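The instructor's notes for this session suggest beginning with a concrete chain rather than abstract definitions. Hand out the sequence below and ask the class to guess, before any prediction is shown, which regions might be ordered.
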Amino acid sequence: MIALMFPGQGAQIVGMGQELADRFPVARATFDEADDVLGYSLSGLCFSGPAERLMQTDICQPALVATCVAAWRAAEEAGLRGDLVMGHSLGEYAALVVAGAISFPDALRLVAERGAAMQAAAEASPGAMAAVLGASDAEVEALCADVGDVWPANFNCPGQVVVSGTNAGIDQLLANVAASGGKATRLQVSGAFHSPLVAAAAERLSSALAAWTPGAISVPFLSTTTCRFEPADRLRELLADQLVSPVRFGAAVDVALDAGTTQFVEIGVGRVLSGLVRRVRRDAPVMQIAVPGDLAAIAEVVG
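After discussion, reveal the predicted structure:
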């Protein structure tokens, strides 16, 4: 049983997808389609930058979805099939494209609006995020409660929890962790995502989601917000709630394993999710399809 995984914001790098598009016509066509839908050269920003523009939330979100879908389409042509799909935050949109619940053009439009809404909310309610390492989920929750105005944002794997909060709250949490001999680091992000501070983004995105009609899910979709297999009629609510709810990626990996997953395949950019899976289950089989050279590994799965 194969679980397909798609990364979220933060995975983007200048040059992503270029070799993929150069070698695989279906990938090139995917980037061309994205350019047409969005009305600007998203492919140019992916392939050549500048980095400052690619890193902006309203650009990097459709850029990552386009790169993930391009990689998936190339892998699908090579014979890869998935038995379930999952994504880390933004990555759920690529997962839902693969599942058939959302068209690629609709996904691009929605994540462009999502990124713009998140950036606006972050500017209106400034905040920050930090990664706390080596502490249990319960210990991090207690740290947040002690500080106030800080909330768990990503339960990535055992010993790695990301928190969001006000700038003052994050400063205090970092000081408290350091004083106790723990380890935590501030992340280079533009806002306190997956927290109540960006509630305005969820409200704005809800309006865009209301105009979208989900399609039938053809491949089971495992939410990393609820850690449940979710039906199409829950997707509008779920994708709005996702913005202000913690990502529970580690727990979702456990659900995938309990469902019978025997192979995790990370598709798109980088290898972050593969590393998290191995932190959840050291012997879990993982592979990546993030660059064209990785496509040769598909034979190990479909062979």
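Then share the key points. Residues 127-186 form a domain with the Alpha-Beta Plaits fold (CATH 3.30.70.250). The mean pLDDT is 93.
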